Amino acid sequence: MGQSCIAESKMEALILGVAQDGGVPHLGCECHNCSDAVHTGLHKCAVSMSLINSANATPEAWLIDCGPDIKQQWRLLKQHCPKAGVQGVFLTHLHMGHYIGLYQFGKEAMQSRGLKIFCTPRTAEYLNLNQPWKYCIAQGYFQIMIVAPGVQVQLGHGLSVTPVEVPHRQEFSDTVAYSITGCSGKKLFWCPDIDSWEEWDLDVREVVESHDMSFLDATFYSPEELKRRDMGDIPHPLIPHTMHKLQGLGSKVRLIHMNHTNPVWDPRSIQSQELEKQGFQTGVQGSVFTL
């Protein structure tokens, strides 16, 4: 344990959501997964995570992405750590399910003061030039903190976050994943969106091997999931391909960002059984990992 990781400190990663941007149930959908979510009332939140540092008397928390389910996710965070104060938000990119929840921190809702928004220069440019984000920045609700791929951001007491550039559709911004290191030296990798493992400058297998746990894009299991849309317009690595590339490393992986059409939402499905057979698991909303 590092010198700064005092015995009383407690650093955790709390998983706030593992669904694709639209969550489950999806708007206007009556598929098996969405109907089941409506029937059971067990809604799945869009992908997000909170880092919690309890080294101080008042615990500090940071969000990684802030999507449309932030109110429910805020309650989940407060249930887990009632005194946690959110210091900032790390954005991966500007697709709807990863940043639209920031509006809850604006004038019409919480009206935060100086909430730190950690993002790349291109993302910062978009937020600075477009409303309502431009207004929130001008009023001091948000404070933009520029991050750069490969440059570590120190959050105190040995907790750090390092952006890692990944290839993904760039309609509004570039995209990063995050490598997170806790005071114990444990490392997590958070990559909810990527076009393909082959287009990446890094080797996904080496990345997974170098982290204690990796949360990886698992949007689709099969191209058959979207019958009325061109999968080429929304590329993601398919789960079977990811499992093949990471054969033998399943215990170090949690699959996240599942679309509402993904059969692995159903634990009884053949696809879920195949995941288990291969030694892989999906991420679970509310699960906690010690850092």
Automatic annotation (TrEMBL):
Name of this chain's protein: Metallo-beta-lactamase domain-containing protein
Coiled coil spans: none
Residues passing through the membrane, by range: none
UniProt xrefs under Pfam families: Lactamase_B_2
Metallo-beta-lactamase domain: residues covered: 63-251
SUPFAM superfamilies: Metallo-hydrolase/oxidoreductase (SSF56281)
Cleaved signal peptide residues: none
